[in-house]
Amino acid sequence: MINETMKELGNKRSVIRDIFEFGNIRRAQIGAENVFDFSLGNPNVPAPADVNNAIRKLLDTQSDSYLHGYTSAQGDANTRAAVAADLNARFGTSFRKENLYMTCGAAASLKIVLTALYTPGDEVIAITPFFPEYQVFVETTGARLVKVSSDPATFQIDFDALEAALSPATKSVIVNSPNNPSGVVYTRETVEKLAAVLKAHEEKTGHPVYLIADEPYRELVYDGIEVPYLPNFYQDTIVCYSYSKSLSLPGERIGYILVPDCIADSADIYAAVCGAGRALGYVCAPSLMQHVIETCTGQVSDLAVYKENRDLIYNGLTELGFTCIHPDGAFYLFMKSPVEDAGEFCEKAKEFDLLLVPADSFGTPGFVRISYCVSTDMIRRSMPALEKLAACYF
Ligand code: PLP
């Protein structure tokens, strides 16, 4: 006897995994330098030097029990105080360490918050395109995921669609800006409108509607673009953060949940977060990394490489005739497939050893995600292959 839902989930092949495996075969056959792999969101820019220096210093100066022992379930008090101080300095807030719960990255942050909030029958809205794991995280709580589309021209929120989707069962809305996979950053106008719509819905239904801000790409923006800080715009905001991308530490599994004092039922929600962390076995995020974060919070990996890559790939593809959404943040470029079926287009791309991801699983058929967290040299070398691909359509 086993849990069939979990078995199905484990056996389900993800599109990205299939592409990755195809890439491995081709790398072995023709050499890694001839495969142009734009499929994964694994940062290629190293962590800031201070991160590795902090690890060395900790190893040289601290005891094993401090480095590798359990911290408190919700995270080391000094780490949480440092994160709160950094947020307060950057966003003019007044968070305390008691508002923070350290996690194993954004995936854990989301799963804990969703488990803390939902009971079967609840509805949660996510704006397409979205990180495909939302579906898994939401549905395994028994809640229902309601998909709301973005404006197809700008990939800002389509407010008519959002208002139509809000119901008395809506308990929260998940947003992700800068967005994976579109690279779009929600403007101040979008955020203000979102806050007004959710506030009106709270007043209408008489219960809180939590805005869950999934923010692993918050600091990854180019050309000085503003990323409005959602807790400053909408009172009932819970933040799910990760250092996977901002500090290039995806394998270290470190992030946090922020439950501000001002949200409705804040103390109960924080208690439920602690309870969900416990129920999911997610207590005590990696201790060594928590100590690193204590000294490195607020730092960001060098964004110059991503910006150069962004410009190269965006300019290259648009000059070839492809329609692309201009990415202001994250390290993904969203491109319209020249044929209706993006899967078919990505299969064609494979003929030129170009590994691109169809965006169907992100809730946006007809689009393709191109991850540009790769070497700039690979982007340059991929141009002849992209030209050949373009020649098949234009
Ligand atoms: N949310 C989004 C939008 C992501 O793109 C990712 C990872 O790519 C995650 C959450 C999960 O991040 P983490 O590696 O910190 O668990």
Top keywords for this entry?
2 domains, alpha/beta, 394 residues, Aspartate Aminotransferase, domain 2, four-stranded antiparallel sheet, binds pyridoxal-5'-phosphate, 13% strand, single chain, Aspartate Aminotransferase, domain 1, 14 helices
CATH superfamily of the largest domain: Type I PLP-dependent aspartate aminotransferase-like (Major domain)
- SS field, number of helical segments: 14
The class by helix and strand makeup works out as: alpha/beta
CATH class of the largest domain: Alpha Beta
Return residue spans where pLDDT drops below 50 for at least 5 consecutive residues. Answer: none
In terms of DSSP E residues, the strand content is 5-15%
Radius of gyration computed on alpha carbons:
21 Å
- Which ligands, by name, code or SMILES, are bound? pyridoxal-5'-phosphate
Architecture per CATH nomenclature, i.e. the level-2 architecture of the largest domain? 3-Layer(aba) Sandwich
Strand order of the largest sheet: 2-8-7-6-5-3-4
Shape verdict: globular
**Main sheet record:** 7 strands, mixed
Number of strands: 13
Helical content class: 40-55%
Tally of separate domains = 2
Q: In sequence order, what are the helices and strands, one letter per element?
A: HHEHHHEHEHEHEHEEEHHHEEHEEEH
State mean pLDDT (0 to 100 scale): 97
